[in-house]
Each structure stands twice: as C-alpha cells, then as structure tokens.
Amino acid sequence: MRLPPAVRAAALAAVGGSRLQKEFAWMSWAGTVWRLEGQDGAVYVKRAGDLKGERDRTVWLAGRLPVPEVLGLFRGFGDDWLLTRAARGVPLSDRSLDWEPRLVAQRMGEILHDIHSVDATGCPFGVRKPGHVLIHGDYCLPNVLVEDGTVPLGDVDSLSDDELIARLVQVRGIGPWTAQMFLMFQLRRLDVWPVDDYGVRKGWATAHGLKEPLKPREMQAEGERFRPYRSIAAWYCWRVVDTVLPGKLESKRVAPKNPKPKPARTPLAPNVRNSKPDRAPLAPRARKRS
Q: pLDDT, tens digit, for every residue of 206-241?
C-alpha cells in the first residue's frame, strides 16, 4: 500500500519510529481501512472519496462518547485519508472477554442507553427535532468496543461523585449514565442528578406542565435547589413518568363513532297462569251407596 507523504509523516509522528507495519483491516462501501503499527502504538487510516462528514462527526463526539482521536484529514491520490488513533478495547463479540451472555446483553443495553442519552444540541448531523436522540448507524456486537478491566473501588468512600464517575468512565463501555446509575442504585449516593436521562427530563416536564422536556444544561440549573438530595428528586421524576393519572386515563377513552341507539326492551307479559286457569277445576266424584 502506498501512502501519501503527508499521511505517512503524520502516522510516523503518532506511533514513533521510522517504519510502519501495514495491515489490511477491512473494506466496505464506506471505504478501505488499514492498521498502521509503529514503535509506540498503532493508528488507523481510512481511504474514501469524501470523509469530511465522518471527521466532523468524530470530532463532535469527542468528550461525549469514547471515540477514536482524529489525527488529521488529508487529500491524496484523488481521495480523502482520515487518520485516527487506535481506540482501546476489543469488540463485544470477542471470545477473549469470556463474559456470560447475560453480561454481554446488559453491557450492550447500557452502552446503547449512553448513546441515546447524549445531549444532541448542536449536533452537526442527522435530523434535529424535539424528541430525537443520538443513534448508532450499525449497532451490533462487533462494532462495540469494551475493555475487560476492573475499576479500583477500595477508596470509593473517600471519592466525590464527580471523581468516582471520572474513574468509572475510563473503562471502555461505561459512560456517564451507566456510572451515575451505579452511584445511585449500587452505592446509594444521594446527590446524583442524571440530566441526560430522558425519563428524568420527561418527568420534570410533566410535573411542571411543560410542553417539551428541558435541555440537560437547563435541568442542571433546576437541580441545584435539591442539593444534597438530587437522587431523590430524580427518583420522583421517574415515578411521574410511570404514574397514570385518572384524568389522563379518561382522556384516552375514545367514544365510538355514530353509536347506534339500543332498541327499547318490550316488557314481559305478567304470568296469568294462576289468575286465570286454562280450564275449570274438576268436581269431586260422588261416592256409591252400598
């Protein structure tokens, strides 16, 4: 494989050394990808006709989700070349994890929830509409990276909520929402305010009669009044969403279209069997004289 000079120079600067070991990674309709290994690590380079959109999406997601670090976008040989640093972790489908199916399914759902919980304000791609959430275009086990690492929790009591969340999200596959749920339901922390959780925002909007849920940064400000018991406030927001009020229940009952009137019932005739016998009673029979 022949690399444009600018791509080769940037890759060598990222991995160190003077030589690159090239390995074909995969090819699809979206482009061709190679893995480049050097003295101090590895990078990936993708070649396609137009990669500006992918570059912009990856840069925007940095800091919101664990994504590869973009090292540069170059033009050469009539195509775009996107250079990224290798992300940590292995695919969720990798047998080296040796996870039980239950754990794989649980982590799969947690990561998907983290993606849906990202505040999409200012997102440079997709359709912006109220209620829309960020999605993964091809969410499946091989496309999700996780780390089979452990988080040291021996000093958990001495860590603040923010410090503990920062430690948890270092593990590939654990995002802010998953860390917050761990603090609330496993460690019983009382001052966690998961503003990216749609259920919390929806419950707040319902309780306050708002047409649309507030943005996460607006929810952050609203939660300040509940310190140091914001976890309890979040719990109440979830309960509001789960509660069906009588007024809402009645409003969901739809009257039938053009209801047909029921025919009047004909009253039953009185029972006249005893009042007017069908025949006269028989006379007593005369006894014979002997």
A: 999 999 999 999 999 999 999 999 999 999 999 999
- What per-residue confidence (pLDDT) applies to 245? 62
pLDDT tens digits, one per residue of 70-105:
999 999 999 999 999 987 788 888 888 777 888 888
Distance CA 198, CA 117 (A): 7
Yes or no: say if 80 and 72 are a contact pair by the CB < 8 Å rule.
Answer: no
For residues 108 and 174, the answer to whether their CB atoms sit within 8 Å is: no
Residue 89 to residues 143, 185, 200, 211, Cα–Cα distance (Å): 11, 26, 31, 41
Residue 269: inside a domain: no
Tokens at 124, concatenated: 């440079």
User: Cα separation of 165 and 282, whole Å?
Assistant: 103
What's the total number of domains in the chain? 3
Residue 147 sits in the same domain as residue 161? yes
Cα–Cα distances in angstroms (integers) from residue 226 to residues 90, 164, 233, 237, 247, in the given order:
40, 21, 7, 13, 29
Note down the domain range covering 127: 88-174
| pTM given for the model | 0.53
What is the identity of the amino acid at 31? G
Distance in angstroms (rounded) separating the CA atoms of residues 213 and 251: 22
